[in-house]
């Protein structure tokens, strides 16, 4: 496989490159998140360190997931459970905490590949639900042809649901992605944003609540 290794620690990167090459992989190494975003398109697999000098690794991971479904394992020194959860929610397929044995890494990589890829990013920039038109690229929403003014977060929330119609997104997952904190105090704020979306569009069913689970894009019928 063509493996993109995003790791700023030269010694670790060099050891991993050697180990991966020994297993028949072609390795491209990058020490910066910006390069990772640029190079991910040419990779069959990405190994991503979270502690990078130019960008928070979780931010890099989120951005990467907007454009690519490449299999990815987060490789990091962070051990807090919260970081693990956030990494996995942000789109990692698996997680390894340093130090680890290379045989463990190889096994995890194989397992991720065997399991298959995660859902693809959306093919369309425009999602329509009944007479509601959500333009993800231009960040515009129209109901029955009339534009609806949404705040940035209201739009982000609707877009998050619209990107994967039918998929239920948990409250923590939404709070993490939109508010940047899964635990959070903004919990009440999420309810308010959902109410606003329903009221402003005049389509109460557009955001469907699944009690105790989360939200998904609903219908306008
Ligand atoms: Ca690092």
Automatic annotation (TrEMBL):
Domain Response regulatory, first and last residues per copy: 2-113
Transmembrane spans: none
Assigned keywords, A-Z: DNA-binding, Phosphoprotein, Transcription, Transcription regulation
Listed CDD domains: trans_reg_C (cd00383)
Domain OmpR/PhoB-type: 124-219
Domain of life from the UniProt record: Bacteria
SUPFAM superfamilies: C-terminal effector domain of the bipartite response regulators (SSF46894), CheY-like (SSF52172)
Cellular compartments per GO CC: cytosol; protein-DNA complex
InterPro entries documented for this protein: CheY-like_superfamily, OmpR/PhoB-type_DNA-bd, Sig_transdc_resp-reg_C-effctor, Sig_transdc_resp-reg_receiver, WalR-like, WH-like_DNA-bd_sf
One of the GO BP terms on file: regulation of DNA-templated transcription
MF terms in GO: phosphorelay response regulator activity; transcription cis-regulatory region binding
Pfam family, one: Response_reg
DNA-binding region boundaries: 124-219
UniProt cross-references to PROSITE patterns, sorted A to Z: OMPR_PHOB, RESPONSE_REGULATORY
The protein, known as: Sensory transduction protein RegX3
Record lineage: Bacteria, Bacillati, Actinomycetota, Actinomycetes, Streptosporangiales
């Amino acid at each position: 496989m063509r493996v993109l290794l995003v790791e700023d620690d030269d010694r670790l990167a060099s050891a991993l490159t050697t180990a991966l090459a020994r297993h028949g992989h072609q390795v491209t190494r990058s020490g910066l998140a910006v390069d990772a975003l640029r190079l991910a398109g040419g990779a069959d697999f990405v190994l991503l360190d979270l502690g990078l000098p130019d960008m928070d690794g979780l931010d890099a991971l989120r951005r990467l997931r907007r454009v690519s479904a490449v299999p990815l394992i987060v490789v990091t020194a962070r051990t807090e459970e919260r970081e693990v959860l956030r990494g996995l929610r942000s789109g990692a397929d698996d997680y390894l905490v340093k130090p680890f044995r290379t045989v463990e890494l190889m096994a995890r990589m194989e397992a991720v590949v065997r399991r298959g890829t995660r859902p693809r990013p959306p093919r369309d920039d425009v999602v329509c639900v009944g007479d509601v038109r959500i333009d993800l690229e231009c960040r515009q929403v129209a109901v029955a042809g009339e534009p609806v003014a949404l705040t940035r977060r209201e739009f982000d929330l609707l877009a998050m649901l619209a990107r994967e119609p039918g998929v239920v997104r948990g409250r923590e997952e939404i709070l993490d992605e939109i508010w940047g904190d899964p635990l959070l105090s903004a919990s009440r704020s999420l309810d308010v944003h959902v109410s606003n979306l329903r009221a402003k569009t005049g389509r109460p069913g557009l955001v469907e609540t699944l009690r105790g689970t989360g939200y998904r894009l609903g219908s306008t019928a």
